[in-house]
Design goal:
This protein is α+β, with helices and mostly antiparallel strands. Among the domains are: 139 residues, Sandwich (Jelly Rolls), CATH 2.60.120.10; 55 residues; 164 residues, no CATH class. Helices cover 48% and strands 25% of the residues. It has 16 helices and 23 strands. The strands form five sheets. It has a seven-stranded antiparallel sheet with strand order 9-10-11-12-21-22-23, sandwiched between helices. A five-stranded antiparallel sheet has the order 16-17-18-19-20. Strands 1-8-3-6 form a four-stranded antiparallel sheet. A hairpin with a 2-residue loop joins strand 16 and strand 17. The longest helix has 50 residues.
Length: 561
Amino acid sequence: MAADLTQVIQVLRREHLFTGLETDQIARVARFFDQVDIEKGRTIFRQGEVADYFYLVLEGNVRLTRVIKGKTQVDSLIGPGDYLGEASLLFHQPRSDTAVSENQVTLLRLSPNRFHLLMKEYPPLRMNLSATAESRRLVQKLQFDWLGSDELIYYVTRKHLLFCILRLFLPLVLFGIGIVLAYFLLSGEISLLDIVLLAAVMLAAISWGVWTWIDWSNDYYIVTSQRVVRQEKTLVFSDSRKEAPLDTVLAVNITSDQLGRILDYGNVDIRTFTGGVMMSQMSQPRRFASFVEGYRKRIMAISKEKEKEKIEEELERALHPGQADGSRSHPTIRIPVAPDSNAAPVKRRSSLGQILATFLKVRYEEGNVITYRKHWFVLMRKTWLSLFSIFGFTLVLIFLVQYELFLTALPCVAGITYAILFFWLGYQYLDWNNDIYRLTPESILDIEKKPLGREQKKTAGLDALDFRVEHTRESLLNIMLNFGTVMISIGQTEFIFHGVHNPEQVHQDVADYREAFKRRKLQEKDARDRERMLDWLLTYHKKSGRNEDQEKLPGINDFSG
């Protein structure tokens, strides 16, 4: 569907890409674009092709895919306001993706000549586009597993290089000591012990330096189309991620000292209802803050536009019911419910059946409910002594039978001992089995239950404004076995999921359920507000119609005579 220039200008003004341009400049930029309509399922460009256009999505959705080692991978699904093809034109490279229209799509496009002309004429536009292109090129190498299919990364930065250099100072000093040591050793007689000492010093210095570099390069500050993320990986020791949805951001504060203002580094504090996310020692903090603010405003603007469109659709359906479905005189507004609410109810199992069905599972789903247990390592730590005792007693029993010792009393003693040991083992397993963390579409539960003992349950709803989630893997063992801690703060209540398998997945599950809950509640509120407003409008429309009909009725004098 063709869009007029005013609509194009409106779309460009809300996009962070055009931040820094005045209104008249944006109007001039809008005239550079050509508009093209693409049917559903059409290929816009293919991976490996020479770049021919820069595209900006005006309406519809485009799916990006990439073939890696013979396998097709879905990169992302982009929508109105998103752009594609910038890296190929900026870096003079072939297309890195294949773009296919997911539905009827309206695109704004720039030819290479016009694209480079705009980049030259408007430096802020080039800076914003180059930052995004560089970030996306980096992301293609990193492959963030937590990125959603409909989520795009717009900006990625690290801690400033200065702080990496400062941390490399001690390894460089140690390396220098190794050089001096080698000089003195080579100038005289050298023994095997000297060679071993020199090799140890040099190896320690190089290993320390490489570890420091990799550790610095593994920390990222990220702005996506949906959230702000701080990802920190301490090589060998820990792995954590903290995030804040863009629609919860209240303020973005930047702090830096005099040297930071000169070298362009500082701290960015993303303030939310739950406290916030601190990005420390960041390179180019002002650009990062600009991206956060720009895409936060974009989300708010898109949300308002979608709500306006829904209101217009409902009003049109209410005023012209025959055109909508030929039967209704008033719109039926569907209130969203929990996911998969129409699915068949989950059949309840007996306690024994539940234990057998979920035996040793650290994560399982029943309908919309996800249940987590602690990692198998925690189970082994609980049960190793009882397992060792059973194994040891079995060896003793074999020895006694082999040498025919205490054969008369042996069956009775063996039976009682095995009963005690297996009861102990079963108790420890049930103690692990009964400590669960549960995620439902409405709430989070932390349940601790001692076998034959009391049960403690802590619960909180997903509707709290003060909601924060983060995870960490604290040690080398945690990283090797992929278990750690997920911390969820809901108001004054803290849920700490200790020892869960794949804490990153648990983190993502909680974030997804929280987002689904918020969207569901927002849709319910919007639906109620629209219905209330439509009731007022329909009442007004009916009264206005009756008044007009009364004015058209002939007066009494018209019938006289």
